[in-house]
Amino acid sequence: MEETSTIDIKSINEKIEKESAFVDLLTLEMNKVIVGQKHMVERLLIGLLGQGHILLEGVPGLAKTLAINTLSKAIDASFSRIQFTPDLLPADVVGTLIYNIKENDFSIKKGPIFANFVLADEINRAPAKVQSALLEAMQEKQVTIGDETFILDKPFLVMATQNPVEQEGTYPLPEAQVDRFMLKTVIDYPKLDEEQLIVRANLKGAYEKVNPVVSIKQILSAQEAVREVYMDEKIEKYILDIIFATRYPDKYRLADLKPLISFGASPRGSINLAIAAKCYAFIKRRGYVIPEDVRAVVHDVLRHRIGITYEAEAENVTSEDIINKIINEIEVP
């Protein structure tokens, strides 16, 4: 029995190695334009392969828009950008019915959501109605205009950016909406030498041209292949222990966290942590998941899924600190 399982893992490994060959090509192509920000580029690929969506948080000017635009060019996919403002309407996102006088009938004008890659810029500046219109598209991968429903093209990736909540004119997103994002990635300023390269490239004014190096067909095939990455039962148990420790910390020798957590991660957290770990293994060109894969993505998957109490805020404890404590306490398989 053991022999067949090793043969199976071997064949899965070979398949994944073949399927993931494009990852290096794609990363190289993106690095022509994006300096540093390796973490962000990796997370974009995880979101794309895991058929999820990404929330990027960082101050303006950190190449968030440039990153997703470059990714869509390297894949030869359609890209659209929606600038969220307080006066935006749902129709500005999904589209609307327009009355045609000549034909005495209504025709449908599709909105910018109809693209493979959608950048929802500064999502936390828009009213709730607009956010909920975007939500249907993200969750159901479909859009309803009038009485017609349209299925969105595949792949479909929403990358929303938000400025840190303390900034003027920003509103925190509701928990239920934030939960729809597979990953929340926090971006920091570039390092000094990286910023020097950014300044030089801008002063030259000549950006390298990004060429399409991967087809949409390859991406769709990779999305299927990611599901085949082998995950041992011990790793599944490890993921569930991490999630359950956010809900019942006292059962995991973490009773001191109980007053700091207002709510733990939902089952969506467990699903996304498992998928993200498989995607990470795929990017590393491996056909099986190891505990390091889970640890590599756990912060991005859980930082927006753990509610912190006023007590935690008073003590300056963030959801990151809570995740770190849980990771350090839970036994690695």
From TrEMBL:
One example GO MF annotation: ATP binding
Record flagged with keyword Ubl conjugation: no
Alphabetized InterPro entries for the sequence: ATPase_AAA-3, CbbQ/NirQ/NorQ/GpvN, ChlI/MoxR_AAA_lid, P-loop_NTPase
Occurrences of domain ChlI/MoxR AAA lid (ranges): 258-326
Keywords carried by this UniProt record: ATP-binding, Nucleotide-binding
Range of residues in the leader sequence: none
Residues of the ATPase AAA-3 domain: 53-183
Entry annotated with the keyword Transmembrane helix: no
Similarity-based family: Belongs to the MoxR family.
UniProt name for this protein: AAA family ATPase
Biological source species: Winogradskyella flava
Organism ancestry: Bacteria, Pseudomonadati, Bacteroidota, Flavobacteriia, Flavobacteriales
